[in-house]
Write a structure and sequence with these properties.
The chain is mainly β. It is 8% helix and 53% strand.
């Protein structure tokens, strides 16, 4: 079987507007041909405050090892950035998704995040005074893009990811990489 090993870290997040602490929930998703041998496919970073550049450094480790019978359903990383205010409330401030590169080696990936935008004046007033934001009911919109064209979104910050990818025995399946 072909093997795919992901080693790296969720390094940082930048340009999120909130002055609260920011943390990230993540999950790896792959097709039915992919099996996890070791590692955890989901997790959460620590919560940290943004600095004066609106950047937070997590340096959260990632280590997951897959085996596969084919390349269909290549793994993706799904991100959900949330903030935590001073009284313990949390809400989502960004969604993001990226396909992992199919080339071995060290990669730095910048994942642009977005949120559903407020469309009515009532929603804007509620968000300003009470905090929070609109949240997705179905998370399939993030990675599959289903019905995303019908959704009004607003661009948010960026999450930086650094991964080292190891591919083994892929040549048996006709996958060439250089």
């Amino acid at each position: 079987m072909a093997e795919f090993h992901i080693l790296g870290q969720l390094q940082s997040a930048s340009k999120f507007d909130d002055r609260s602490s920011v943390f990230c929930r993540y999950s790896f998703q792959a097709g039915p041909n992919w099996t996890i041998v070791s590692g955890c496919p989901e997790g959460q970073t620590v919560s940290a405050k943004l600095d004066y550049d609106k950047t937070v450094v997590w340096a959260h480790p990632l280590d997951i090892h897959y085996v596969t019978k084919g390349i269909q359903g290549w793994p993706k990383l799904i991100l959900q950035v949330s903030c935590l205010d001073s009284i313990g409330r949390s809400w989502i401030v960004g969604y993001g998704c990226c396909s992992l590169p199919a080339v071995p080696g060290l990669h730095t990936i910048h994942v642009n995040c977005w949120v559903p935008s407020t469309t009515t004046l009532t929603d804007r007033i509620r968000q300003y005074f009470l905090g929070g934001s609109h949240q997705l009911i179905q998370s399939d919109i993030i990675n599959l893009g289903l019905n995303r064209s019908k959704l009004s979104t607003q661009s948010k910050g960026t999450v930086q990811l650094q991964v080292n990818l190891v591919l083994r025995n892929f040549s048996q399946f006709g996958v060439e990489y250089k």
